[in-house]
Amino acid sequence: MSLFSNTAILLGKELRTEFRSRELLTTTAVFILIVLVLFSFAINPGTEEAREFAPGLLWLAILFASSLMFQSCFLREQTNDTLSSLRLAVSDPFAIFLAKLIANTLFLLLTELLMLPFFAIFYNIPLWSKLPVLILVLFVGSLGISIAGTAISAISAQARMRELLLPLLLLPLLTPVLVVSTLVTASLLDREPVVQWKGIGFLAVFDLIFLTALWLFGEYLLEE
Amino acid sequence: MSPVTSLRIPPTGLRFDNIDKRYGGLFALRRVSFEIAPGECVVLAGRNGSGKTTLLRVAAQIVKPTAGKLSFPGGDAAPPAHGRPGYVAHTTMVYDELTAKENLLLFGKLQNVEDPAARAEELLREVGLLERRDSLVRTFSRGMRQRIAIARALIHRPSVLLFDEPATGLDPPGITWLANSLREVNRAGCTVVMSLHGESEISALATRAVQLDAGSVIADTKSGASLHSILTFGSA
Predict the structure, then answer these.
(1) Is B57 an interface residue toward A (CB < 8 Å)?
(2) Which of A6, A117, B14, B177 is the most exposed, fewest CB within 10 Å of its CB?
(3) Distance from the B177 Cα atom to the nearest Cα atom in chain A, whole angstroms
């Protein structure tokens, strides 16, 4: 059976279990919302200051919320040793990663889309006219976060100090994504918006490199 | 033909060639070498920590040996062309958040089982969970979980079955059912390897016992008296 059909079956499982428990979506959405609300008290909405800092706050909130999501990504496969049964069943272990990272990207993107109206209201930033490009930036940024996060989640799930290890490995690794996503979002939300295609291209290349690395070495991350 | 016995042919054996498995400085398995003929029913015996579970996980290809080679005589290559071994572990290896039927469908589809829905229904009937097919596994008792774990291991009609303490959580009728099912699959040509403690209806099926201690094989017998002795007293 091909990699893609295995991935599709596993993606169906990921979506079904998540929409049944709503564990990850709720945690991520609530976390992002809390961060946005708290910082909206510290920054005066509608000012230049808000325009300047809001994109960074948005991406920091996404990054921290995603690290909560990745904590349980592979950890919940350990409860009943289902990771072993998946490894026994799939023809290519990369299908396990691919399904998980697609699911994580979808969950992250869905949460971000739900949070965008709150972001626009709390920081008084009109988004409507820039929405298509903003969604593209959110997609390439979230994909990068998910690829790296899924890989680190597989490593940390087998470690003893997993709660500490995941953010410790993930946050430095995602610094380039955070910086570039923030810059691209900031110039997009400026009073004179500019689409930084070079930044979007950088994020796409980051995604491609990490996806290739995961495809080449992912199998070793699943070994006992 | 019963759902559990409708297994794949040809039967496949197992060969362990100088298998070592080391975790850091600790040897879980040390130079384990023996062969299991296609269709044989073998019990792995030994004290806690003797290496039975590690050996079964190596055979299931979940754990890679540090040294040595695992092969499947009778099969075409490792993993056997006609399916990977069916493995029942200490844990259920199924998803609590999915129903019994969804779990079997998931693993059936992943392993390219022909008509996975029909196969899942067959097995659910066989393991006595047909009426609970749409219940989430997390609502199941320990015995029911063990039944669904066994059904998952059989879904792709494997020619080698590996059981780690298969009677865990089963009530006496459950143990009888399992013993009968194992007898059927073994008669149909399936190679069965299981780790057990003590004699039971299930151990009575074994035609050979391999005893492990500190990761090494210390006894390997087909004789009835020695087999009884290993299972009952822990030594030949």
Answers:
(1) yes
(2) A117
(3) 24
- By Cβ distance, the residue of A6, A16, A224 closest to B110 is A6
Structure confidence by residue, pLDDT tens digits, B83-108: 689 999 989 999 999 999 999 999 99
Compute the C-alpha angle B179/B183/B184, nearest 5°.
120
- pLDDT of residue B1 exceeding 50, the answer is no
Residue ranges of the domains in chain B? 1-85+159-236, 96-157
Q: How far is CA B125 from CA A79, B115, B118, B120, B129, in A?
A: 27, 16, 11, 9, 6
Answer positive or negative: Cα dihedral of A63, A69, A74, A79.
positive
Evaluate whether B84 touches B158 at the Cβ level (below 8 Å): yes
Q: Which of A99, A77, A73 is nearest to A3 (CA)?
A: A99
ipTM of the complex: 0.87
Query: Which residues, listed in sequence order, are joined to residue B19 by a DSSP beta bridge?
Result: B32
Contact (Cβ atoms closer than 8 angstroms) between residue A96 and residue A88: no
**Which residue type sits at A171?**
L
Low-confidence residues of chain A, pLDDT below 70? 1
User: Residues 155 to 214 of A: which have CB under 8 A from any B CB?
Assistant: none
Asked if A81's CB is within 8 angstroms of B98's CB, the reply is: no
| pLDDT: which is higher, A40 or B117 | B117
pLDDT at residue B152, rounded to an integer: 94
CB of B152 within 8 Å of a chain A CB? The answer is yes
Q: Is-contact B157 B83, C-beta < 8 A?
A: yes
Class level of CATH domain B1-85+159-236: alpha beta
Asked if the C-beta of A80 comes within 8 angstroms of chain B's C-beta atoms, the answer is yes
What would the mean pLDDT of B51-79 be, rounded to a whole number? Answer: 84
